[in-house]
Amino acid sequence: MATGERSSRAVRTTKIAMLSGERDENNRGNVVVWVMPDCFPRGNSECTAPFSAEGDCLSCHRERDTALVAAWEKSRHAQAGIACSACHGTEHQGSMATRSRRNDACTGCHQRESGGYTLSKHGVIATLEGKRLDFTQPLKEGNQRVPTCAYCHLHAGEHDAGAGIFPLVPMSGSPAPEDIAARTEARAAPCRDCHSPRFVATWFATGDRMVEIGRMKVREATQAAALRDDPETRILLHRMRDEHLRNVRLGVGHQSPDEQWWHGHPAMDGDLLRIKSLVGRHLRQSEAP
Amino acid sequence: MRIAHLNLVAWLLLWPWCAWSGLPENARGTGEHAEQWQPDPMHEYWDPAIHHRPETERVEGVFKAEECLECHTAITPGIVKDWRTSRHASADKPVFCPACHGEDHQKLTFPTPQTCGGCHPQRLAQMEEEKKYGFPSHALAMERAVDSKHFADKPKAEVASCLQCHSVASKCDSCHTRHRFDPAEARRPEACLTCHSGPPHPDDEAFFASPHGQRYLTEGNTWDWSKPLRKGNYQIPTCAYCHMKDGNHQVADKAVWKFGIREVNPKTVENEIKRKRWLETCADCHPSETAQGFFRELDAERKATWTQLYSVERLLKVLRGDGLLRPSARERPPYPMDMMARFFPRERIGFYEGQASAFYNVSAIERDYFEMWYFDNLGAYKGMAHGAKGMFQRLHERLNADAHAIATTAERLRDAGKTDGKMELHPLWMEGEYTRFNRDHN
Question: What ipTM was reported for this prediction?
Fold first, then answer.
């Protein structure tokens, strides 16, 4: 098929909106550009042409995997313009799913989030057994010895990445989301492939309390910092909330004691006392004769 | 009469009042402060021998040998698959679930080192032997964690993070992960790094930056890890090769510098014996002269670092003497678990005053010194001890910068002491959501 033909079909069959900020008829932004691959409409297995990063994929998969594509469209990935090929690659040779199940499909973008996981027992085993873990199998029912990123965040092929995994209570302290029961269940399901329901429930409750205690520290610091509004306190407060509290959350979620503790709670203790020290000094200075 | 005597008299007069006041009635922790804290529900998983509560709700019945697998293949497929690939499953007489967990589903237990020691007595004995060397050691890790004042003081959900690592004393699966328990996994350095990482013990950074670790990173994946950690089996040592020589399951018999947290005399008889064990370990590959030279360098580095740390410590103690540490000990929550501190409050400076628990509710300059001692000093020690020259140099630069910054802050505090008002800082430091919660929920 000549390039010209392919392009014209692409134009004929697609609505190009991605990256232009244009919204589709359902008011969804970032609709992904898709064009027909050269081999269309031949069967999947014969389809070996490289697929462009813009996502030729949906031309077939919207019909073949309607629910999956619909889930992806709801996801934060879709909102950020992360389409199929970002995780699955562009070579349609039977290894697209295998490739996306590996940790390195995610860690390129999620380096910051993956640090604690890598140090956790799950991550250590994933590193050591990288070659022995069978990623040709779907990510469910303990098919792999340890969970990789996608095992939990896209459990059993759920393409709304992290639908149930995101924290039950948002960082800002705003009220818990309405679907909290569904989220709790979705968060626990992957763990129960290996761990007892009681262990999972107990750990989640403790983990949530550990994060909540972190939020208490932030609220106390925010209150103290209100007495002295200057760049130094603001930087400390920012670091406390966006770095150290975040470490506690990531540490809880990824089972990394190091993130929970040394990069989390005692680091927040340091932020809190430094903020109070600055405020205290300011109060004494303002009182000075 | 000396002040110490007055303190003693005051204490004798006041102790009945102290005993009567404010201790939680149902405290049922363990260790030195058992009366003053209650465990978090997760504690049962980290110290099952003491805190485990058997399942009493769901399944009833007594299950033998492979009977457990009938349900658990569907309920928890991951661990069943894992166990099936273990040596427990492939042994002539397989070790089925009840061997470690019991048969009665209402009285299930989690295996402790004693459980594993039933079949692996030599390993258990080696680990128990660690206790005679004191802390740091794996065998005493849990005891020392719950005995530390900040553990007893802080909310238990917060310090649940501590137990995940300190449970190395109360379970074997910290290194031999369940349910495969593969020695080949435990032999590799990554097996140690979940706990041996982070600011006070960056063993991961130190090892991987060292020539040993660099070699591991490039070649490690091609080696046969099923071989025991013995002379000639591996080209370079990993963590366990040196610290658990010949597979000896104890890590304390060579610990001269004790993590670097306090100054020690490396020339005591005990330490000379430990040093000899190190030299024997290094001798698997290095001539004795090389190894001895290395330890001389290490001792000199420690001496120099401690001289520097003590000079900063003295600076802080002078500030304390001049009343320039604000908030003063009177203005901040009392030192945890210390009744005396309620009557004779005193800022804790240095290892021998219990500074390990003084990383919160202290003034910024005290925290600066805590970080210098606990993060940068320990990191420098780890870098030096593992032969990671770049890391050790970087951390010594940081120690110098810390010393300079603390001296500058001390000057500023001295100047501020002359000009600033004398306002009480009590409300700022004693109130606040977390501070109140901590006071009420240890």
Answer: 0.91
